[in-house]
Design a protein that fits this description.
Layout lengths: L3 E6 L6 H12 L2 E4 H14 L7 H6 L6 E4 L6 E4 L2 E2 L7 H11 L2 H17 L3 E6 L2 H5 L5 E6 L2 H8 L8 H17 L12 E4 L5 H15 L1
Parallel strand pairs: 1-6, 1-7, 2-6, 7-8
Antiparallel strand pairs: 3-4, 4-5
Helix pairs in contact: 1-9, 2-4, 2-5, 4-8, 7-8
The structure holds cytidine-5'-monophosphate.
The site of cytidine-5'-monophosphate has 14 residues, from helix 2, helix 4 and helix 8.
């Protein structure tokens, strides 16, 4: 079979990562979490004391970090200059700064290049999840899915491991990040015209996975 390329985009908390990993594992495809790459470069900027409010400073060092993504859906890995950063890229500090870093065109150009080279070298195909995969990174993907969910459902999913009193704060942070991601000039979060939109608000994770697996199988 020809390699199949699947783009899964959408805002935070829609179940993109869980869905993408499970679909890739079920179908024997590679998997790439592009949000993790933007988080990794943000981690590098923070660690190296780069002023996050200064796009010129960010642009000047956009090419410095060596980011390597492991594409096994059962064990996705990410390193920066050889250091495993899978844990630190999920910190609140990185989460609050990633939208500013990922809005810088030089950062996007660099990361997009990495993404395209990983996608074209995946022998059996790949599931790539992010914000601009269907619109910008892989416009010729065989299947494009755009996941949505109500803000309440997204906040509840994101704060699953927190106390319920934190849901309000999580919801606000999430809405702020989505607004920043959707309004930036370079490849904002957007649904591609030819993407299939799946509203996951009333669906279980298993149902979303099944839906996307069926969509991929229809394309093969
Ligand atoms: O998916 P995740 O929440 O880990 O993404 C973190 C951030 O990375 C997003 O809020 C967005 O700023 C950025 N991102 C992006 N383009 C992508 C994937 C993520 O700008 N394709």
């Amino acid at each position: 079979a020809q390699p199949v390329i699947v783009a899964i985009d959408g805002p935070s908390g829609t179940g993109k990562s869980s869905t993408s990993k499970a679909v890739a594992a079920q179908l024997g495809l590679s998997y790439l979490d592009t949000g993790a790459q933007y988080r990794a470069i943000t981690w590098w900027m923070v660690t190296n004391g780069i002023d996050i409010d200064d796009p010129t400073a960010i642009a000047a060092v956009a090419g410095k970090a060596e980011i390597v993504s492991g594409t096994d859906p059962e064990n996705p890995t990410i390193t920066v200059d050889g250091t495993d950063v899978a844990g630190p890229i999920r910190s609140q500090e990185v989460t609050s700064k990633v939208s500013a870093v990922s809005a810088v065109p030089e950062v996007r150009a660099r990361i997009t290049e990495l993404q395209r080279s990983l996608a074209t070298s995946a022998e059996k195909g790949i599931v790539v999840e992010g914000r601009d995969i269907g619109t910008t990174v892989l416009p010729d993907a065989d299947l494009k899915v755009f996941l949505t969910a109500s803000p309440e459902a997204r906040a509840a999913r994101r704060s699953g491991e927190l106390k319920s009193t934190d849901i309000q704060a999580t919801r606000e942070a999430l809405i702020k990040r989505d607004a920043a991601d959707s309004s930036r000039k370079t490849s904002p979060l957007a649904k591609a015209d030819d993407a299939v939109e799946v509203d996951t608000t009333e669906l279980t994770l298993a149902q979303v996975i099944e839906c996307v697996v069926t969509l991929v199988e229809e394309k093969r």
